[in-house]
Amino acid sequence: MKVRLLHTGDVSPGHVRSAFSSLAPPLVPGETTAFRNSLAPSYDRSRAQYDAFRVLESVPAPEPDWLNLLLVGVDLFVPALTYVFGLSHLDGGRGILSLARLRPPEESEISESILVHRLRVEVAHELGHAAGLVHCVVTDCAMHRSLWPESVDLKNPEFCASCLARFAQP
Ligand SMILES: [Zn+2]
Ligand SMILES: [Zn+2]
After folding, report:
1. For residue 84, how far is its CA from the centre of ligand 1 (angstroms)?
2. What is the mean pLDDT of the segment spanning 17-42?
């Protein structure tokens, strides 16, 4: 399954590379592309955040056997929650992910390596949803549900055996 990583201008080239170069099987790096659509229509003034559903709708549907993931720096929300890391169309081939809430509070070399780990885990998570995978009970599987950034640290950027098997099913 090939991955197209779209990214907005506020995502550093290093983070694009980190997200793309370490994709776990069965995900295969396809291409990275700058995202040309404006996120401005998705901005919610009252929340000072971006509406994740509207951002997701702005991501083009991929061709068969491809997944499109948009990586953004801006903060995302859905109406019922304070924030979301990302959002995907289950089995729809497309998803979005934000770096905003994955960032540790202080900047240091250690916090950068934590951020890169979280980025890799949640890239796998959203791509898994986009490919049709639901949440997984295995605590270190990328498809395990995380509600806060620290819980992402306990996961691996890979899929457990049962999630891997589910990828293979049509
Ligand atoms: Zn999820
Ligand atoms: Zn799993």
Report:
1. 10
2. 95
∠ CA 143-118-163, rounded to 5°: 15
CA 32 to ligand 2 center in whole angstroms: 26
Cα 126 to averaged position of ligand 1 atoms, centre (Å): 7
- Which-ligand-closest: CA of 152? 1
Task: Sort residue 132 into left (φ over 0), alpha (ψ -120 to 50) or beta.
Answer: left
Distance of CA 136 to the CA centre of its chain: 16
160 alpha carbon – ligand 1 mean position (Å):
15
What is the distance, to the nearest Å, from the Cα of residue 57 to the centroid of all Cα atoms in its chain? Answer: 15
pLDDT at 5: 98
Residue closest to 38 by CA, chosen among 17, 19, 59? 59
Distance 67 CA to ligand 1 centre (A): 16
Distance from the first to the final alpha carbon of the chain: 13
Q: Taking every pair of C-alpha atoms in the chain, what is the biggest distance, in angstroms?
A: 44
Domains delineated in the chain: 2-168 (3.40.390.10)
Per DSSP, 84 falls in state B
Q: What is the pTM of this model?
A: 0.95
Residue 53 pLDDT greater than 70, yes or no: yes
How far does residue 144's CA lie from ligand 1's centre (Å)?
A: 7
pLDDT at 107: 80
pLDDT(170) > 90: no
